[in-house]
Structures
1.
Amino acid sequence: MITNRKIEHLMVCAAEDVESGKTGLEDVRFIHNAVPEIAKSKIDVTAEFLGRRFTAPIFIAGMTGGHREATAVNAALSEAAEQLGIGIGVGSQRAAIERPEQIESFSIVRERAPTAFVVANIGATQIKEYDLDIIERIIEMVDADALAIHLNFLQEAVQPEGNTNAEGCLDAIKSLSESLRVPIIAKETGAGISREAATLLKEAGASAIDVGGAGGTSWAKVETYRAQKDPLLERLGELYSNWGIPTAISILESLTLPVIGTGGIRHGLHVAKAIALGASLCGIGLPLLKLAIKGPEDVISEITAITEELKVAMLLTGCRTLADLKRCPLIITGETKEILQQRGFDLTELQTRR
Ligand SMILES: Cc1cc2nc3c(=O)[nH]c(=O)nc-3n(C[C@H](O)[C@H](O)[C@H](O)COP(=O)(O)O)c2cc1C
């Protein structure tokens, strides 16, 4: 059943409009610098996250595995990650625990990306049920550098097979964090992480947050396509298709830990804004999935183009490094400003820093 679900997700995401809402990044503006006094050729976009260095602040979001077709997609994504010197996540490895013949669809990632930063993936609801040795198998399957634990209760609530028992996840994360040899990244999948949730996850032992904010792939929309024969699920999916904390807001909310800004990141100016808000890396999912179906070359050219777009934003703001970009003044307008003010953020600090 899980294997079928994973391939259905992949097919729906590749073929249908599954994006929804706004990231809030449209309300974030840089101030153009007419005299930047730097050479674009000297701009350095190398990034640091959990003690590792990356050639660009871009991370291939964990998406797939658990099906024969997913093996080729993961092969393309991991070849791109290896060649570009960036990190990569895999999709939930639950399918491989329940059906060992699916292991290859995940282990291919480490085979094709022997030196990349690879992130294993499992759901918060599964870690409550699994013994430590199963979690260790999940990590070994991709020789992972970190374990992402995904929080996806919106998706669980709108999918036919959903597990909506969210009790005990923090305790399970805490006990894992005390036993594992790799860091834990707590990860949302499209509804974002609040400051309160980030604090609880930090206390439970998470080492980083992948915000998985709203404004990109919407699991409520994905599941609406799958639920077409079930009027209640379809109704739920439609009602909640815009639910969640937009990515820009969630990055600021989660800065108690190192952050991967994911959710609707579609070009280099989005990456620049997310980094300026405080993210260490930016995760990209859906667009890379669609390209990976064709092979690694298109993934490589897309990420190369996004990196060039990022460098132009850095040139035009006079930022030579990502550390400079993190100190670059930002103007926040519109709904994002209103939400951040109501959440108690001091926006004058963002406007006047440097
Ligand atoms: C087809 C597909 C499958 C996904 N599967 C998983 C998963 O198994 N585990 C997980 O943590 N996130 C999963 N995600 C969520 C992504 O990691 C990411 O958080 C989300 O897609 C938002 O980024 P985007 O707007 O760039 O797509 C999946 C996303 C897609 C598109």
2.
Amino acid sequence: MDVPSNQHEARLRSEELRSQLNYHNYRYYVLDNPVITDGEYDELMNELRAIEARYPELITPDSPTQKTGAEPLASTFEVVDHRVPLLSLSNCFSDDELQAWYRRAMDRLDADGAQLVSEPKIDGLAMALVYENGQFVQGATRGDGAHGENVTANLRTIATIPKSLTGRVPERFEVRGEVYMSRSGFERMNAAIGDLNLEREREGRKPLPIYANPRNAAAGSVRQKDATVTAGRPLSMFVYQLGWVEGGARPDSHHETLLWLKELGFPVNPEARLHSSLEDAAARIRWWGDQRERIDYDIDGTVLKFDDLDAWATLGAVGREPRWATAFKFPPQQRTTKLREIAVNVGRTGVLTPFAVLEPVVVGGATVSLATLHNEGDIRRKDIRVGDTVIVQRAGEVIPQVVAPVPSLRTGDEVEFAMPAACPSCGTPVSRDESEAAVYCPNLSCPTQQVRLLEHFASRGAMDIEGLGEKMAYTLFRAGLVTTIADVYDLGAERLAEFEEFRTRDGRLSKVAENLLAGIEKSKSRPLPNVLFALGIRHVGYETARVLAERFGGLAAVLDADAEALQGVEGIGPIVARSIADWTARGENRAVVERLVASGVDPHVTPRAAAEAGTLTGLTLVVTGRLETMSRSEAEERIREAGGKVGSGVSKSTTALVAGADAGSKLAKAQQLGVRVVDEEAFVRLLAEGPAGVLQVV
Ligand SMILES: [Zn+2]
């Protein structure tokens, strides 16, 4: 960042930054309603720090760099004076900054090295809890660090906070920690608000704001006037520090303090680690960078503290930040930007899906200009309008999404979104399927639908035609070579050779064309579930196709089944049954299938008897993450071949979760429910030997 080169400009800029930061502090700490993301706040703060480091004479006592948070709201809560101020942490964003922090501390301590404790930095709300004679008597927010808000009644409703302690405890003491909301709890809560908003919309009432992230939701929940509202919110707490102590001894080191707090019954994060060196701690920080998606609460970095409490006393604090601790921050995953437009995609089954066109913004290390909005209902539930400032999130491998609008920044020019009345591809008036809240283009010869269907037909898990991807689908369609999927099998060497793009310079058939024809030939013997899935019938995913194949045993039998017979199949509901029956009732669809069969498409069927005698009969497995020796769909196919069931999500009835590399929320869910987790090696043994040797209870 650029620091102004003359004092006059620096003064102007620092005044501007101070006033902005004070405003954002007020929105964040007092109103629980920030208008910028934490990452954007950090950038403003870092710029001010850099100016103040170069021009120390510009530091004012009320500078946000010299205090924490904002003054408490005395009108809502009683004000509590903190006996020892609650400081906030300095931030490091790179290894160099971390090294510099450590070296400065070593110089002051006149030491060569020191032990460190690392803990995940929970994105929650800092709290100070006071205990007297083993009883919880007071809980307060951080506030501005010196004065907080008395939220004792609200904290009493949080189950993980002990109300009374057993064993020998000091007469009076204070512990500090973070109140937070789990990610799953946050999603449930926002979904409930969204449902409420649809109801309010029908009644002509203003929608309630959606919370942007679990931290805001936790803050809003703790700072409720009515403790019964707090009681209904999914809040937890981790305790990470001892404040002051009266009438009792305290441990000498930070890691012993954590163990002691745990013994007393406080919730202490099990992920805290003691490190012998900075290198060791830095390795843990890098590990957290990859692991943050695996746990069910948000963390925005890793906290490092020196273990020796004497070192804390020697190092002291600078401004509002202790020198004995720092937070290594991850790149921010949320950013605000302008929603320029809501555009609409046409899918292979004709369903219209809205997506966000954004002013480009860097989130989590990548530039984002398009983001998903899920569906029309979701836009209404969250009250997202064109022209809004919105919060965009990009976490892990998930595609970027618009999380929520920032309604307080509205100018009045924002426009509510409505689905187009005509298909953006072919102009046909759209149909609305009220039962599924979907809008679709009913035109079967809609060009976008046809290209998408062709792409789907040839994709992996369907006909798996090598050489026929998105680009080739467009080429074939534009050339007029393929208009329906059955045309794929009429493509021959002579036909392709008529087109320049499939010829070499000396007029022979190109390698690309040869590969395409070989891929098409090979696809004729795909299994029945793949063929049924490839047809692109609405609501028929691979799993549904597999169930159909198993029940009916052949292509013709599926085509001849009516809605009633289809609905009798386990796992097929009325909407899916109706959709299949509607599809097979259309003459043009049957003609396509007849042409496929006439061209030599001959799907083979896995005999049912073989599956029933398999090693995994009666077991339900779920596969997640990246496996080394096979793809996920291969793994699922092998489970089925061995007679097992493949679950789509982890539940109590899951026998085991097969977890490969980079497993995400399913792993967390399995751990939460106590479902067995097996690695790839154990999975391969399970396939070969069955559960006896692999899954017995230890
Ligand atoms: Zn259309």
